[in-house]
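# step 3/5: fold
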Amino acid sequence: QVQLVESGGGLVQVGGSLRLSCAASGSVAMVNDMAWYRQAPGKQRELVATISSYGTANYGDSAKGRFTISRDNAKNTMSLEMNNLTPEDTAVYYCHANLRVSVFRRADDYWGQGTQVTVSS
């Protein structure tokens, strides 16, 4: 059974930084694209950043210039470095991965349980 576990959330002041991490555990044969999403209270879940298995990164408008996504394929982990945080970044951040539990099975989408990021003014 595969699990995505996020860590690194917390409370930070405006202008501060946080680093989120996501680790895929269990029977993982291959991890394709990974991504961070976030959902603020009363709002729809939005894409923050994606990264391919080759390391190609793309960012949502809110993350460009401030956030950096990275991954370690050998460890099946992904990180999100967030700088210059504002109260608008307050949300639950979710890790997403498209992965295979076996080379004989198709890839499926998996989600972490989410980690809260709160930016205080």
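# step 4/5: annotate
The two ends are 40 Å apart (CA to CA).
# step 5/5: archive (pending)
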